[in-house]
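Batch job 17 of 40 flagged for manual review because the log was empty.
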Amino acid sequence: MSTITPASASLVSRLIDSTPTRRVSSRQPSQQQVIFNRRQTLFREIAKLRTKLAKLDNKITRLNEQATLANDTANSARERVRYLTQEITRRNQEETEGNFGNTYARSLRHYNDYTRTNPNDEEGIVSRYNEANRLHGILDAYINEEIRPLRVEAQSMLRTITREQNKYRTLNEHIVELTRQKDQLQNELDTMNNEYLSLTINENVARGKRQRRSTYKKGKKRKH
């Protein structure tokens, strides 16, 4: 069995020392690579922000349409209530000044006149009072029956006004909040766009310098 002599051991040691070893590179990315990576990141973030802004715009548009509809509905209901109120007044006056209203008015005058001229005739006063009161009850019932549908509709319109006003207020509050979010996203987008543009300009300037440097070196080689 062969043995390793001191001379052989010395040769092996020199061979081991002279064998190249692979080292882990600690080289940092170049400035151009850092700029490129940042631009790629910004490009993706800008696309996401634009998508969010488009969705917010669509939502705000829909809410504005709903708020406009609610406001228009409330305004229409107000106009209807105004008309119904005027119609109730007109019909009330019309019936009061009509034939039956005149009948009640004459009966009331008879009662008042008789009370002044015959203050001691209790039976006659009570009789005329009851007649005037009966006619008034009939007239009042007739007028109420005549205008009851108008009053019912007016009350319904008042409820509609309240409901649509509340809806309009809630929608506007939502629109204000979404608009605030949109403005904030727009500011972020503007900042990213400015940074992206600045990096693009810097990259183009650096590329131009590299191209000019390469052309200059080629020119020098041709002269030699």
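Reviewer: the log was empty due to a logging misconfiguration, but the result itself is present. The mean pLDDT is 83. Unflagging and moving on to job 18.
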